[in-house]
């Protein structure tokens, strides 16, 4: 039985870091489902949110292998109880004519999506939320015809007042 694993990794903000982490996953035969990377509040570090599907017994092993890399300062396993997260979706749908545009706008209002672009034949929408909410929204807009879509993948922070950097500095 496999489960979704979400990791927050605090890494040194240096050239080649992404390649080293991705290479570790590749060499071990783990597929990365999504990966987001950004500089933290301290420019010496970047934060990676890594989502992969694995066997529960491999979670500890993955964390230990990441920590063996000298560029990795800390790894935290995130879940619904200890973290809050979100994902970004941009989707371009067919919307030719007033009726089609009004139908898409009604759907947007229900989900809290934002209109980013409107042309004579299409609309580009933006939605943030959990993967489940994004999947549900995609299912709903499919009826209009999806021209193109892009998703960021998950990004998450631990709950509470502390930072992943707190005990590293």
What's this entry about, in short?
The protein is α+β, with helices and mostly antiparallel strands and 169 residues long. The protein has helices spanning 17-28, 59-68, 98-111, 131-141; strands at 3-12, 32-39, 45-54, 72-78, 83-94, 114-118, 122-129, 146-151, 155-158.
Properties at a glance:
single chain; 169 residues; alpha+beta; Alpha-Beta Plaits; 2 domains; five-stranded antiparallel sheet; four-stranded antiparallel sheet; 4 helices; 9 strands; 41% strand; elongated
Could you explain the architecture of this structure?
This protein has 169 residues and is α+β, with helices and mostly antiparallel strands. The protein folds into two domains: 3-78, ACT domain (Alpha-Beta Plaits, 2-Layer Sandwich); 84-155, Alpha-Beta Plaits, CATH 3.30.70.1150. Helix content is 28%, strand content 41%. The protein has four helices and nine strands; from the N terminus they run βαββαββαββαββ. It has helices at residues 17-28, 59-68, 98-111, 131-141, and strands spanning 3-12, 32-39, 45-54, 72-78, 83-94, 114-118, 122-129, 146-151, 155-158. The strands form two sheets. Strands 5, 6, 7, 8 and 9 form a five-stranded antiparallel beta sheet that branches. The N and C termini lie far apart (38 Å). The mean pLDDT is 95.
């Amino acid at each position: 039985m496999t489960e979704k694993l979400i990791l927050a990794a605090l890494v040194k903000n240096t050239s080649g870091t992404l390649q080293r982490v991705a290479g570790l996953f590749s060499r071990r035969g783990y597929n990365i489902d999504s990966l987001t990377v950004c500089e933290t509040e301290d420019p010496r570090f970047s934060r990676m949110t890594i989502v992969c599907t694995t066997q529960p017994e491999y979670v500890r092993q993955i964390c230990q292998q990441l920590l063996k890399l000298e560029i990795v300062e800390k790894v935290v396993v995130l879940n619904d109880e200890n973290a809050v997260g979100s994902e970004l979706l941009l989707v371009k749908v067919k919307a030719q004519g007033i009726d089609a545009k009004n139908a898409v706008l009604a759907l947007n209002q229900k989900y809290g999506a934002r209109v980013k672009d409107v042309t004579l034949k299409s609309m580009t929408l933006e939605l943030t939320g959990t993967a489940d909410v994004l999947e549900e929204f995609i299912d709903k807009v499919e009826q209009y015809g999806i021209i193109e879509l892009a998703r960021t993948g998950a990004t998450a922070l631990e709950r509470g007042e502390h930072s992943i950097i707190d005990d590293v500095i």
